[in-house]
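Incident log, structure service

09:12 report received: a user says their structure output differs between two submissions of the same chain.
09:20 pulled the input from the user's history:
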Amino acid sequence: MRRVLLQAILLLSAVCLSARGQDRGEEGPGGTKRVNLSADTLAGVDQGGTAVQMLIGNVRLRQEETRLRADRATQYPDRDEILFEGNVVVFERGDTLSASRLLYNRTTKISRASGSVRLTDGDVVVTAPSAVYDTRNKQTDFREGVTLVDTASVLVSDTGTYWSESKRAAFAGNVRLETEDASVVADSVEYEREAEVSRARGNVVVYSVETALDSLSADTTSATAVVANWAFNDRRAGKERLGGNVFLFQARFDSTDVDTLLMQSESLRIEKSDTLNRMWSTGGVRIWNMDTSALADSVLYETRTGGGIRRETIHLFVDPVSWFQSSQIYGDTLRIASTGGEPDSLVVRGHTFLAESDSLLARIHQVKGRDLAGRFLGAGRRRMIVAPNAEALYFLKDGEVPNGAVRTTADRIVFEFVDDSLRHVRAEGGVEGSYFPEDQLADQKLEGFRWMEDRRPRKAELLAEPRLVRALDESPFRGLAPGGRRAATGAPAREPPPIASARNSQSDPKPSEEMRAEQDDPPSHTEAPALRDDAQTLSEGENGETAWKPGTVDKTRDGYTLVVASRADRSEAERLAAEWHREVSRDGLDVDLFAALVDGTTYYRIGVGRFNTRAGARRVLTGLGAQLPEQTWILRITRSM
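09:34 re-ran on a clean worker, output below:
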């Protein structure tokens, strides 16, 4: 009876208290300011034998600089905690935190919020299912998934901490940081909002996509993925550093073609500006792309843009080796330059050695000297000049039969390559030479010769890196390149949809003047003529018309063609090719079949024309316009076709 009476007295006392003006702000234990708590209605309630105060309607709390409001609250007389529920909002020196429910400790000033938690300072919004908010330190901890959004970035992770005063975030667990020009995935990320500086650690992947005007063409998109153990990025300064077994994958493509770059190194440093990008790789660098591959201790990769033209230069330092088709080159330093994605020059300084494999003779031509200057002339043509103190060992043949070797010294030696094979050697100044017949070769080789084909970086090997495989499978590359990510990496892609039929045979397309120049003008010094053996590939049809046969296009040389249709059935493909031949042969355009293995099926692509450059193929494609099928695309010709 006494216990019941005591509880009733306590409840009655609580009800009689004023609904406003509780705890007027006197000093509490340890110097803590007491809270000022008010509401529309105050009621005493028994919760499991404990008398508590229920505050209902327009609940307000004030303690030092902290302001809080809610629909209702529960105050525990024997505890320092107050539970706020319903449209809870906390204001703390510029911070605003809202939640469905919040347990506030008036001594520690720490709040435990749950239910649609939202923290903002006006510039940033952080959301999560729950959070622990330290009002004194303006520190918020999130443990059930968190998203941070500001004007420059979006940061998502499993857990995280945000410091409002310093505008700093430290997130962990499946972290993804999205900025305007990049995306970072990592185990953990620290992000400084005002400086726009981020530090990522553990299974780091950095994605970026850029679009720029390429020479003589429409926009070209460059998509890059870099995997590393750690990464640092200063977005405002345009500087980035990555370390720990770094793998870089870059696919540069337009609407018709894909060019791929792969690189491995111990560390990578990137600097970007409006017209110049620099990328330094150090420590066991390995590079592969469609035209070259290389090894070096360190590499500087520069990209300059201006006037709609992209110029790239690769500098290789400390025991560099580079391969171009069947050529191997090494020296003290190497520099490879390209314009518009096509290589145009090579410079080697100090202890130059050039080795060229001759597959027919099963021997390796060799040349050495101090320096080398090389020019890529297009369509498989190259010129290499070695000087001074040049020395060469060149193996001869009579037809296809080995016929000894010539060893020559001179002030300089000039090499001419055609169709990527050594065709001519010329020595100039102070020439001395010796001929060695076949029976006296005795394994002739120049001092310093090293054949390192087994060290040559391979695309398949670099792409097999598990971290890179995962990164590309989850990358934003899908939908950017023709065929998506598979096309960018060289993995099997679905064949483009076949064209229902060839054009109406009565149509009479007339090439534009620009196209005629591409087809009829004599080749410039940078292009070899398009070769065709009419006697072998063409025959006279009825009415004196030249009939089509497979093999019209010379596929042993680099070039491009316009694919107008594709068939898995060879006889059907040949029928379509004959139709196209009847329509375009009068305009000087060849037609041929180009085989491709796609997802285990061989497709026969009908190609119209053979062009020395991609730009030339693009001009014809643009010039013919609607006269070609809508799905027409540009295909690079390779010897495997």
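09:41 both user submissions now match this output. Likely a transient worker issue. Closing.
09:42 reviewer note: Helices lie at 2-16, 459-463, 466-473, 484-489, 513-520, 534-537, 570-584, 614-624. The longest strand covers residues 197-213.
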